[in-house]
Amino acid sequence: xxxxxxxxxxxxxxxxxxAESRDRRAELAEIDESTSGTVLLFFLAGxxxxxxxxxxxxxxxxxxxxxxxxxxxxWLTFGRIRTAHLNAVIFGFxxxxxxxxxxxxxxxxxxxxxxxxxxxxxxxxxxxxxLVIGIGGILRGDTTGIEYLELPKYATPILFVAFAxxxxxxxxxxxxxxxxxxxxSQWYILAAVLWFPWLYSTAQLLLVLEPAxxxxxxxxxxxxxxxxxxxxxxxxxxxxxxxxxxKVIGRPIHSYYLSVLGFWTxxxxxxxxxxxxxxxxxxxAWMITISIVASxxxxxxxxxxxxxxxxxxxxxFGKLKxxxxxxxxxxxxxxxxxxxxxxxxxxxxxxxxxxxFTHHTVAHAHWGMYAFFTMTMFGSMYYILPRITQREWPxxxxxxxxxxxxxxxxxxxxxxxxxxxxxxxxxxxNATTPFLEVVQGxxxxxxxxxxxxxxxxxxHVAFFANLIWLLARRFGPYRQPEPMILAGVTPAAPVGK
Amino acid sequence: MGxxxxxxxxxxxxFPAVAVWALWWAGxxxxxxxxDKAALLPFDEQEPVGRMTDVVLNxxxxxxxxxxxxxx
Amino acid sequence: MNYGPxxxxxxxxxxxxxxxxxxxxxxxxxxxxxxHVNTNTAAIYPQPIPGEAxxxxxxxxxLGCNYCHTQQVRPDGFGSDIQRGxxxxxxxxxxxxxxxxxMLGSSRTGPDLTNxxxxxxxxxxxxxxxxxxxxxSKGSIMPSYAYLFDVRKIGYGGASTNALKLSGDFSPGPGFxxxxxxxxxxxxxxxxxxxxxxxxxxAPLPKAE
Lengths: 497, 72, 209
Description:
The complex is a heterotrimer.
Chain A: H1 7-13, H2 19-65, H3 78-110, H4 117-140, H5 156-175, H6 184-209, H7 216-249, H8 256-269, H9 285-297, H10 299-313, H11 324-347, H12 349-355, H13 359-389, H14 396-429, H15 435-475
Helix pairs in contact in A: 2-3, 2-4, 2-13, 2-15, 3-4, 3-5, 3-7, 3-13, 4-5, 5-6, 6-7, 6-8, 7-11, 7-13, 8-10, 9-11, 10-11, 11-13, 11-14, 13-14, 14-15
Chain B: H1 2-28
Chain C: H1 4-30, E1 36-37, E2 44-45, H2 51-63, H3 116-119, H4 123-131, E3 149-153, E4 176-180, H5 182-193
Antiparallel strand pairs in C: 1-2, 3-4
């Protein structure tokens, strides 16, 4: 590609300089600065969990086609390491990076500095202590045995306190906002931080502390399990997309009304989806049907959001060449659409009859949590980190490596495994196919999955290295001078405008 | 079953009613007008509409010195 | 222009809706299901599982068997669960009233175990399978649970009665034997307790043809 850079790209490199803009800039810089310690804390802890979680994932994935691997220790057995992986990447990586993004976005959009950082830093520490104890507990065998809520009950109260603090802080920032107008991202964030404590406390109460009777547990389990994705990660991912997409390309969101529609329909339908995980299960028909209907209704928010994002991007795709944030965010946005529509399909009975209980479901979970959410969070971090550290990314190469490894890696993960899972489901439906033959049929797909996991791991290491390098430039002994592009007001460069 | 259907029917009346009321109330308070202005919130003087931010990769030659960093 | 209150209300009400519909209502409908008493035989079903099996259930949970095995039989005509012998009838809510936690499972990397106690009642089979699944099921991807067993020297009194009958590559070598630890015994008691053959009014056994 050798298209000449568009005017807006050139002007990004030589911003205007007036007294007023300097003030505004100073305010923004002050806000970014106020969040820096806390956001860094969440990002770094999150990234550490990502690396740990990736290692767990590789072990689990390898075991699934080569069960003799590391099979002499109970704590490394598939049932535990897989679970430790899930909790490390969901509650360690995804949730913590999400909180970092939430705090930064909230402060920026509300135009207030982050207050009393020590309290929220304490929340970060609580959270991580709780997780270390909890994941250690899972490896020891203290799991609750409830999907997405495996962390043992001696760890979850700590997590809950941390989470409550985070929610309260987000609302405090909101309460003291200087900017009275609200942006789409803020709705999503507020919704997420209010929904999650409710979900988590209900689930803890009815499943762990005072378990409900029989299959009611399974109902609550999937109400929670699906909503962690639908009402916590999805809104935060969308909040990030709604902010960074327009911000990077320099063009307001295509239709504000479509985003309103997208938000309220998501709020209305997503939280009824959970029971599509129970199709064919021991429940009265109305419960399953209501969730299938709500799942199909999800087409409305998904399609309206997709249209909105697409028309915002139209004519600006050339900018993908320059911005790492944009690359990851666009990848995430497109994945959101695809994985959501695939989710709609998976909830329908005839599809579920085949794909339920197979690796297809695992692939779908990774479309959502990785291709959409994780990629979106990577994109957000690429934008936020230079601005809170006042340093540029040290290596373009590592950025590209990160992008291509994760983008290709997750495609290599999801596409073959979805297909392989479908074949597995088909084979299982035929009662004359011996079960071991079904098992053997999944092996090639499971092996491809391990390869894709290696690619993803390489991408994560590249990102982590770049991050550490960046921090070394900021805090290390050989500090670099401030780079011009982020310093805000700079002498105009000779080219452009 | 009696109490269940009572709650179901009751709630299916009450919830939409409250929703409609909230919408009406929001409209009367002017909460629904001029909302497209809010789309401009991410932008400001320094980073106005029309200016790309986050130009990190493949920067135009003219602005880049040897190391891939921008010269001033 | 201030969206705040509207937003808060909306956020609250939307989740309240599903909390109501997907948490409260199921709890109302299924939350106090009672066991069924057969009027002819006075047999009560289901019953809490006895001590050793209950401990075995904890082993099952702790090792995460539920990530590869489901315990739910889908209805006749929906999937091939019944044809594969995973259960005599579909599972219904009443089957689970004594389970804490309910481990329906979401993945069938391995077969459903709702009815394993009937399909495979043999202690020996289960022990050797758990010790190393390749013994009974060549090509399985189920992990070995050898740490639930002791490998020890055969004492003066000769081999223990509960020693596993292992041959070829799987044998621990001359003069040694493999015996199950208590956890392994509990786990197998649990597996043997899993049965789905009792008829319920809401879930009759499909007619045999």
